[in-house]
Amino acid sequence: MITQGKDAKWLAVLAGVAVGLGVAGTLRAQGTNEPGKPVTAPGGATAKPETPAKPEAPAKPEAPAEKPLTAPTIKELAARGLVRAALTDLRANPAATTEDYRIALALLRKACEVMPGDSDLLRLALDAAEQAGETGASEAILREIVKADPEDTVSQLSLITARINRLQDIASRIAQYEVFLGPRGAGLDATVRSRLALDLALLLRERGDAAGFQKRLTEATQLDKTNKDAAALAYAFYRETGGDEVQRLEMLVNLLGADPLDEATHLEIARLLAAVGASSEAMRFYRNAMALTEIEGLQPELEIATERSNVFFAADGPEAALKELNKTVRDARRDLASLRRQLEEAKKPVTDIPEVSTIRLDLANERTRLLAAHALGDQESLSESAQDMVASIAALDGYIEKPDTRPKRMTEERVKLLKEVWRLDGPLLMLLVGLDLTGAEKQIEALRALKDERALSPAVSARLEGWLALRKGKLDEARGWFEKGEASDAFVQLGRAALAEIEGEKTRAAEMYAAVWRGASETYLGAYARAMSKKLSGKAPPPALVGQRAGGYAQGVPKWIDDMMRSPRSFMTIAAAPEKPSVGALDFVKMTVKMRNTGQTTLRVSADGPMNSRFLLSPDVRVGATIETGVPEVIRLDRRFSLEPRQEIAVTVWADPGYGGWLMDNVAVDSSRVRYRVLQGFEVADGLTKQGSHCLAVDVDQVRREGLRGMKAPIGELMDRLEKGEGADFAHAVASSQMKLASVGTEGGMASSDAQQLCNALLKRYAKENAEGRLFLLTRVPSTPGAGVFSSGARAIEDTDAAVNIAKIVTRVNSADDAWLKSMLANKDAEVALVAKLHQQRLSAGASVLANMKAVRIPATTTAAAPAGSGPAKGAAPAGGSTPSATPAAAPTGTPSGGGSGGGGGSGGK
To answer: Which residue among 224, 304, 604, 766 is least enclosed by CB atoms within 10 Å?
Structure first.
């Protein structure tokens, strides 16, 4: 299919070919006789051979006819001009206020009145209304959105809840919710009904109706399994009201179904499974949780990493745990030793490079390595681990004295807590593995000398004294101490098992170790006990029955959930394409963005869901040889709450409604090419914008924008077009005037005398235009000093249309003392009077607004491409040369980077 932007060119070529074929066909029809025979004339007569004529010189090809001017209708230009004015005005103020959004709302609502039913404009107006806190306006706009886009279930819910919230008492609200959830609301989408049921459940709980709360909460989870809020509330409710671990696990898996990429849910499932002894299944969810953390560019918290290490010890056994931990520390030491050696050989200083001996595991993982080595009987690893542990405990004192030597994220309070813990755990662990008996005994004597029951309580004494006696061979004394200990103390239980082992009761000892494992399966002591039980009995002890049931249930959680951790491409695709590959100088770029669920289950669509609905359209603009990074625009695809497998959302949006499009208007004098990159779930890190974690990005085919024609024509010709032109010719004449007037006062720009003549011509046309034409002029003619004659003249012309007066206020008034602005304070239209008041207040405060923008220059087409990294930051107005084709543009001072506003929401960079 030939695209519209190329039709004229290719149709002209095809027409030329067709003419050539037509002539050739005629010649062949006349020359069907055999060569050398006379040509038969019509009627059967024989024609005399003709003398060949002397060939004529080939005619010079005619210059191709210039394509006719094209432009959107004045109506559309007026409506979209109001939008661009609203968003650029917001952008002019780095800290837009509620009042700024209220002014933007007035402009955007008028734009919606000029072009009713345009969902792009309606959503921009809705965003402004919400930012301005105008609930009444929000509801009215929502009605229009639902009318324009009946499949937008998100807006349907917002409209319903807005209507219900208007009711003053809870009883009336409950009654209204029940209507929507009853037979009369059966036609509503299940995702909408699910959220209404959740709202009703919360209201019923507020009234103390526990049964009603539970009923409606259950209904909410059943109607839509992707309703994460309902699933989370159901889990919290069930956890508070009881139930065994398997039932809790079922609720957690439901919550995981609502958001398979929720790190917290994976972690909670892992912890539940670890606590009941389903270690292998727990490891799966620990891996998922840590993978999600790492995808975010973060390191897992030490506590979580330690939990995972303990469960890995239990699930895969001491050999795998020891191998992993030995590799971690030994590889790090080898790499550091290699680095120091290379520096020393190069005779470079190594004073800033730590000593190899200082590279150690954290104490929690060292503890696991120590016990794994002991369970395996690996004396080399056991000795190495014990030495490292002693050194790490000793280093805690240094962390207090020299805070700069502390590991990152370790506070002084954390160091003091660790010292208290390891003052007891250090000697206990040494006794448990049978090392450094003398050192452990000295530490215990020091604790006795403190005579501090908080440091050496009866329970702690039984633990320490029992193990000391056991390792000294005083078995009866050890037995006595262990009998005094608390039955739930894992160290005491391990001591009793070790005592039975020493006394030769291996079967009994294995059972005792297994009991310790079942009671503390998520801990390092539980993992050690499991390893010792297997060592004595030859087989790993199974978890308790509840652990077996939970493990079996967890095995049924689909494996494709794990695939989702690895790549977003395993469950979705995104695509984007411009509506047209080529547009006219005044056309508006439309972009269709699609998001498709290619996964195996229904997935939630939201800004924080698995299918992230926030997108950034980031343009690169090429004008001649100059490439500039354009200003990005935000769009949202949250038209539905979820997508089933193979379903997609396809939204066509205006790609540059805000400040970025305004800048593009100011380079319209030259043809340009724009290439967009679409970033899903975008985030900014170190000044760079990229797609969010578990999100996608896609490059879009470039869009070619034609340049304005007639810019070099004499001013008289331009003024004539302003007077007599209609449709596209008039629109292009106004756009050309915009460029010329913005250049006043710049090198090579328009002379002030010519600018005055041009402004008078614009005013003459303004006076005879209807409201739409006046809106187009007001939103297109710059508000720079070069156009001051137009601004003052337009204010002097009386207008009764509210939209025109609001546009005048925002685009033409840059002084709080302006007499015309003061007259608008008493305008009979309340909206006009309010905008006048708010505008006057912000001008009095010295705010930066659209009407007081300053002029900068746009790069020329003849400018060489800038060196890499030399371009302006995103959002900065680019500076350029002073060649004739370099046209100036107005730009707000102090504009923030990024931002803008898209067809799906978000305005003014907020």
So the answer is: 304
What is the 3-state secondary structure of 282-322? Answer: HHHHHHHHHHHHHHCCCCCCHHHHHHHHHHHHHHHHHHHHH
**Burial level of 66, CB count in 10 A (0-12/13-18/19+)?**
exposed
124: left (phi over 0), alpha (psi -120 to 50) or beta: alpha
Structure token pair of residue 153:
């279930």
Amino acid identity of residue 890, one-letter, is A
| pTM of the entire predicted model | 0.81
**Helix (H), strand (E) at residue 857:** strand 854-857
In sequence order, what are the residues at sequence separation of 6 or more whose Cβ sits closer than 8 angstroms to the Cβ of residue 21?
Answer: none
What residue spans define the domains of the chain?
119-295, 302-538, 568-705
> How are beta strands 572-578 and 590-597 bridged, if at all?
antiparallel
Contacts made by residues 196-200, CB under 8 angstroms, sequence distance 24+: 196/157, 196/160, 196/161, 197/223, 197/230, 198/227, 198/229, 198/230, 198/233, 199/161, 199/164, 200/174
Main-chain dihedrals φ then ψ at residue 577, nearest 5 degrees: -155, 140
Residue 10 has pLDDT above 90, yes or no: no
Amino acid at 760: N
Band (12; pLDDT cuts 50, 70, 90): very low
Residue pLDDT, tens place only, 251-302 = 999 999 999 999 999 999 999 999 999 999 999 999 999 999 998 888 888 8
∠ CA 243-247-253 to the nearest 5 degrees? Answer: 140
Q: How far is CA 92 from CA 400, 689, 845, 877, in A?
A: 51, 21, 14, 12
Three-class SS of residue 66? coil
Containing 524, the helix (H) or strand (E) segment is helix 524-537
135-144, 371-380, 624-633, 788-797: which has the minimum mean pLDDT? 624-633
> Do the domains 568-705 and 119-295 match in fold?
no
Contact 665/891 with Cβ under 8 angstroms?
no
CB 779 within 8 A of CB 813: no
Closest CA to 664 of 813, 859, 812: 859
Q: With respect to CATH, is domain 568-705 assigned 2.60.40? A: yes
**DSSP string across 163-201:** HHHTSSSHHHHHHHHHHHHSGGGTTS-HHHHHHHHHHHH
Q: What is the number of H-type helices and E-type strands within the chain? A: 34, 17
How many Å apart are CA 286 and CA 562, to the nearest integer?
11
d(CA 79, CA 775): 8
The class level of CATH for 119-295 reads: mainly alpha
CA–CA gap between residue 111 and residue 98 (Å, rounded): 20
Sign of CA dihedral 787, 789, 792, 793: negative
pLDDT band at residue 62, thresholds of 50, 70 and 90? low
